[in-house]
Amino acid sequence: MRPVTPPHQALAPTPWRSRSLNLSGLAGAFAILAVLCLLSVSIGTRTTSLSEIVAGLSGSNETIAEAAVSLRVPRTLLAVLAGAALGVAGCVMQGVTRNPLADPGILGVNTGAALAVVIGIAWFGMSDPQDFLWSGIVGAGLTAVFVYTIGSLGRDGATPLKLALAGTATAITFSSLVVAIILPRADIAGGIQSWQIGGVGGATLSRTLSILPVLGAGFAISLLSARKLNLLALGEDMATGLGERVAVARLTAAAGAILLCGAATAVCGPIAFVGLVVPHVCRLLAGVDYRWLLPFSALGGAGLLVAADILGRIVARPAEIDVGIVTALIGAPFFIWIVRARRVRAL
């Protein structure tokens, strides 16, 4: 039987050695992300040299390579922001629900955001990117409440398995509704079907920058909830005994995750499994303290999405594979492994 860490030790400050190792790990993760961003800017249908990258970054479009660099920069920036948002959102969701299967895709939150955006486009003629953004956030929030309510029914409450089943059923139902809405609308079907796969191609700097305020708020709320998530990890009774209001803590942390997930989905489409894979890998590197786990998840999610985008350009050159497909190929086996592992019942 695995020993249980006493509450006073679980909440104690991180030892200097662990803090130093985690800082080194964050620096290493940031360096890897910087290299991936450089590769993302340089790799595509046309490979560019360092001098062409520098010229393209300075605003020059005199050659085809320099123009390609200027197009890849917003795409790379969007991949970084969306990946970080999904990584942190997944980490927060796992902490709030104490569910190792929690992920914006598996819990249906991504699909709910996508459904809200599709309804806005098809039924209300929505075209403003800001309308997409707020529709995605509202859809993500309503879906999260719905899935948690359904998963809480019964004697045992919101168990990990019930939440995963409720989220999966909701995601399938909402995906079917999206198809039913767009089938009669040939004028919008092509664009929505492409967006629904999930990708960062065609990103523009203005659209990417438009989600920064919402992402900033989501990141801030999530990071400020780190201590609350540490207390929730001890169990509801222990957290209450230590003076934490469990319902408020869950609601606050979930609000940050919903902002991040809704904003990322509104711009990129529903990208699954980033929020599942990244937090589990980061726990192996940073441990279970959310004060470290959340920053690691942000860098890890950004790195995973940028790497998936690069891989999608390489394997199908001169065509591309959207990142939503690449992350699904990576995440599906990981999901099966978690389901079969010992951590299915509790986090």
UniProtKB/TrEMBL annotation:
Keywords: Cell membrane, Membrane, Transmembrane, Transmembrane helix, Transport. One of its GO terms (molecular function) is transmembrane transporter activity. Pfam families: FecCD (PF01032). Its main location: membrane. SUPFAM superfamilies: ABC transporter involved in vitamin B12 uptake, BtuC (SSF81345). Belongs to the binding-protein-dependent transport system permease family. FecCD subfamily. The chain crosses the membrane at residues 21-43, 76-93, 105-126, 132-151, 163-184, 204-226, 247-272, 292-311, 323-341. It is found in: Cell membrane. This is Iron complex transport system permease protein. It comes from the Bacteria. GO terms for biological process: siderophore-iron import into cell.
